[in-house]
Amino acid sequence: MTESSPARAAHAPAVLDLAHLHGSLSDPALLSMNLLNEVSDHYPDAVSFAPGRPDPGGFAIEDVHRYLRIWTEHVTEAEPRGAEAARNRLYQYGRTKGVIQDLVARNLAVDENIHADPESILVTVGCQEAMLLVLRALRADDRDVLLATDPAYVGITGAARLVDLPVVPVDSGTTGIDLDDLAAKVREARAAGLRPRACYLVPDFANPTGLSLDVPTRHRLLDLAAELDILLVEDNPYGFFGDGAPPRPTLKSLDTGRRVVYLGSYAKTALPGARIGYVVADQPVVRGGESVGTLADELSKIKSMITVNTPPVAQAVIGGKLLDCDFALREANRDATARYGERLRHLLDGLAARFPATSPVAWNRPDGGFFLVVTVPFVADDDLLAYSAKRHKVIWTPMHHFYAAGGGLRQLRLSCSSLTPEEIDLGLDRFASLVTDLLERT
After folding, report:
1. How many angstroms separate the CA atoms of 97 and 128, rounded?
2. What does the mean pLDDT of the chain come to?
3. CB–CB of 300/98 below 8 Å?
4. CB neighbour list of residue 225: distance below 8 Å, 6 or more residues apart
5. What is the C-alpha separation between 265 and 238, in angstroms, rounded?
6. 4 pLDDT higher than 70
7. Residues 70-92: tens digit of each pLDDT
8. CA-CA distance, 125 to 227, in Å (whole number)?
C-alpha cells in the first residue's frame, strides 16, 4: 500500500441463510441425486450396485470422432451450401429446438413406431432438462399437481420441487401402475380444488423397481387418461433392454389422442457423455381458441432462457451414431442388451443361491432393465449404506430416496448394468456378509 492509498476496512464475508433461499434446497429430493451419483467415488474399493450406468466396455474414443465425421458429411451432402452449412451448424449456437430433430424422428419411427413431426421434437441437455421444461410449462399456479408412480425416479421429484409442483404418489402395484389408485388420486385431488396435470411413469423396466406395464395395462391406461382428462409423461430410457422378450409398444406409439408427452434419452443407448435427451410434445396449444403451435414450441421458449440450446457438437455425435446404424439403434444395442440380460439373470441366480426360501431377504424379478428391489429385515438407510461401504465394501441404493411421501426404509435397489458377473458374485458375497452381520445383532 502506498503512502497516499487509503486504508480499506476488512469486510465480513457474505453469509446466506438457507431458510432465505428456495425451499427446494432443503428438500431431501435434491440431496438424493448427488448422493446416488457420487457414493461410488467415495468408496473406490467397494463393489457398487448403485449406479444405473451403461456398460463402458463398448465405448471407444475413436467412435466419437467417427460419428462427428459421419454427421458432417451427411450435412455437407444434404445442404445446398455444403461444408459451410455443416461448419455453421456445428460451431454456432443453432436453433433452440436442436439441429438433429429430423434424425431423432427417423430413429423413433424405426425403433419405436412413433411417427413424430420433427418440429414436435425438442432436443435437450439430457432427459433431466426435458423433465424440468415439461413440468415448468404445466405448472401454471398453486392448484396444479403432478401424479407419479411411487416409488419414482428421484429426478422427477426433484424437478417438480424446483418448479413448486407438488407430487401426488400413485401406487405402482405389481404391474407398474395401479389404475384404480390413479383414478382415485385424480378424483381426490379435484375434490380438494387441485388440478392434476399429468401422470409421470416409466412403463419399461422402471427405475427403481424394474417393473414393466403389460400391453393390456398400457391400453387401459391410455383410455383412463382420456377419461380423466390428464396427460401422461412417458419416460423411456430402458425400453431396449428386455431380457429376451419381444419389446412392448411404447405408450406414445399407441397414443391416438396426443395424451402422451414422450421423454427420451441417448444416455443408455448411445453415449452418456454426450448428455443428449429429447421430448416429443405434439400437443396442440391454443390461445383464445386459436392455435398458437404445439407444446414443443412452448417448451423451446423456456429452454431458450435456461440453456439457450443444446450443444451442437454433442448433437452431431449422436446424429452420426444414428446415421451410422441407419437409425436402428435397438439393433445396434443387441450385444449390449444380451450382456445386460445375462447380468440380470446372474444377479437373480446369485441372490437365490445366497438367500434360500427360508431367508427373510426377498426380491422382485424384473424381466429386463438395470434394476431390482431387495426387501430386508432391517432399516436400509443412508447410515447403513455408509457402514456397508466401509465395513463390508459393498454399495447399494436405499429405496427411501425414491418415495415421495416416505417409505421404502426396509428396501434397497441393486443395479447390475455396469458390473461383470465376477464383480456381481463378489458384491453379493459382501452383501450376504452384511446381512449376516446385521441379523446376528438382533
Report:
1. 16
2. 95
3. no
4. 199, 231, 232, 259
5. 9
6. no
7. 999 999 998 888 899 899 999 99
8. 33
| Per-residue pLDDT tens digits for 167-193 | 999 999 988 999 999 999 999 999 999
Does the global pTM surpass 0.70? yes
Could you tell me which of 375, 399, 374, 405 has the C-alpha nearest to residue 170? 405
Q: Is 76 helix (H, G, I), strand (E, B) or coil?
A: helix
Measured CA angle at 144 (ends 143, 147), to 5 deg: 135
Q: Give me the count of residues in the chain.
A: 442
- Chain-centroid distance, C-alpha 204: 12
Query: Can you give 202-270 as a three-state secondary structure string?
Result: CCCCCCCCCCCCCHHHHHHHHHHHHHHCCEEEEECCCCCCECCCCCCCCHHHHCCCCCEEEEEECCCCC
Q: Tell me the per-residue pLDDT of 268-304, one tens digit each, with 9 for 90 and over.
A: 999 999 999 999 999 999 999 999 999 999 999 999 9
Which among 162, 150, 166, 167 has a CA at the least distance from the CA of 26? 162
Q: How many whole angstroms separate alpha carbon 156 and alpha carbon 165?
A: 11
Cα dist. 294→117, 139, 436 in Å?
11, 17, 56
CA distance 355 to 27: 36
463390508: which residue's cell?
392
Residue type, 321: K
- Spatial distance between the Cα atoms of 157 and 391, rounded to a whole number of angstroms: 32
- The residue type at 197: R
Per DSSP bridges, beta strands 167-171 and 195-201 are unpaired
Q: How many CB atoms lie within 10 A of CB 212?
A: 23
Q: Using alpha carbons, select from 140, 185, 143 the residue that is nearest to residue 163.
A: 140
Do 369 and 344 touch, CB atoms closer than 8 A?
A: yes
Buried (b) or exposed (e) across 286-304, using 16+ Cβ within 10 A?
A: eeeeeeeebbbbbbbebbe
